[in-house]
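Render GPI transamidase component PIG-T in 3D.
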Amino acid sequence: MRFAVLVTAGIAASIAAPVGEQDSRREYTEGLTLRPLPHVAKAVAHFNFDLTTTSAASSQAHFDVFPQSLRHVVQKYNVEDLELTFTTGLWRHEQWGSILGNGPHGVSLQATMHDPSHWTGLTQQLAGLFSASLNKMDASTVYTTNSSSSTTSIHGMLPREELCTENLSPWLKMLPCRTHGGLGAWVRPVTLLDSDFLSIKVRVVHDHGTLRLHQSLTVVRRVDPTWSLQSLLGLTSSPTSACALARSSVVATDLAFVGSSATSPGTRNNPVDHSTLHQVSFASAAATTPSPWLVRSDSESDSTSASTTWRGVSGHRYLTGYGQVRGGIGLQLTNHHPTNAIHVAYHETMPWYLRVYFSTVRLRLNGVDVDPLTLPSFHVTVPTSSSQHKHLRAPYELHFAVEIAPLSQLSLAYSFDKTFLPMGAHPPDSNRGFDVPPASWTVDGVTYFTEPLLVPLPTPDFSMPYNVIVLTSTVVGMSIAIVVNTLLNHERRTNLLLTLVHKLKRAFASANKNKEKSD
């Protein structure tokens, strides 16, 4: 199909802010990138909001644009880098192209700290800020990466956590203009939750007196061929107020087509990476939100879909085996580039209750066995057993680096045993299964994630204690009732003389009645 941009493909609204000392220490920009996916009848919308300020300016002011809650957390726990991600769904690289915003399914928290003992306090405060169960990130769900002499990087994941409006609301409140103006007014939490993919991210960097806040939101939704910005984002009206604090507000359309044409309104910039950018005022762009964003074009330019432009590495992770005793993990990493080999760094964690046998690791490249020990940076971590807090043991870790040849596939497989958990370590719905965090692989500094796994474990019959409690309570209750009834229900003692008098009275009364009848 041939497509062209009918309405604006970009917005650049530069709002003149008062010039002063406070403005010179603060810079805020916002942007929106749209990527049509006509071959799968979907569209991608990627919001990004960036705020930079000096920590001295925000600490001296009673109220500043930078969220005071985040600044307090960063300074209290001496955090250099903090990244929190909520994600629902899986980014489909082959269908949706290069990644715009991604994170592991569930919740991911990564923090670089000077004192690792502050991790518990950090998760508890963030749990209150974002209304999430981040306090469940204990020693059994986190691992340490890139440790140095002065800082420690800790990463934790909760694949069971779901993204909801309670998480989106505090995220929106951290925007300088919230939902009252600018691109933040185009975010509708209830509408976005009905999507194929949704991810929000908050990253705070504290570097030499400078605080940088990056917020992003990525959503993939099904659309009609004549979709508009209003139908994609679920806008009930066209917001016309810009964010007065934003130095720039840009909306770009990534057509992913070679040689596609774009029309005004707006001035067309030179396309970069198959992206066509138009710049108009915020008011002009907001007025065109109900109009179709793309229409069929009669141009003869060649077009390519996102599936054919993907030249990276895709991954698929799955379970093997059956039963409640043993199982296994399988992995496939495929290089889709026709000519270039790609260097991949792979990392995964497994919960401690899946007893992994790393001696069973098997690697195959295009069907040929490869010795794992010959790979650079092949490293495994086995949690040590402890008599105390056995349910808080650290997870297993597997890490290696490999170079995958063009149009080649790397396969990984290993086995594990399923352990019996104590009664208190089972979640409320343990019969559903136990979630295993997604694995990740990194290519050229970009991290990709696999799908999470759901592993069934041996689960006790929780209905049996309930039945025993009900039966025991019934038997004990009936026994107590019988004893109490026996003690209280005694025979009444009466006077023999009174009994004789009552009998004589009844006899005289009966005789009088018979006499009256005979008369």
